[in-house]
Amino acid sequence: LFGAAGVAGVYDVGVVEPERRHGVGTAITRQLLEYARELGYRAVVLLSSGMAEGLYSGLGFRQVTTVSHWFYSRARQRREEIGE
User: Fold this and answer.
1) How many CB atoms lie within 10 A of CB 24?
2) Which of 20, 36, 60, 62 could potentially form a cystine with 8 if both were Cys, beta carbons 3.0 to 4.6 Å apart?
3) Prediction pTM value
4) According to the 3-state scheme, what is the secondary structure of the chain?
5) Quick one: average pLDDT of 38-49?
6) Cα–Cα dist 70/56, whole Å
């Protein structure tokens, strides 16, 4: 749980595959929401994979935007420059 500007953020929650769909992710997230409330946060945001969409919508989250991830590698750029 990370907090800034009055908003709590939940990032990188993960459950190993054999334990998925047993309520572990829901329990972790509920605990984080309770902790955020105890700290006085009135809003919580998170980043999620599509895999967990049902979990988070079931807890009352709603999608407000889509984020694209971009990656830059100088090594790749160098290989392209020299024609590899």
Assistant:
1) 14
2) 36
3) 0.73
4) CEEECCEEEECCCCCCHHHCCCCHHHHHHHHHHHHHHHCCCCEEEECCCHHHHHHHHHCCCCCCCCCCCCCCCHHHHHHHHCCC
5) 92
6) 24
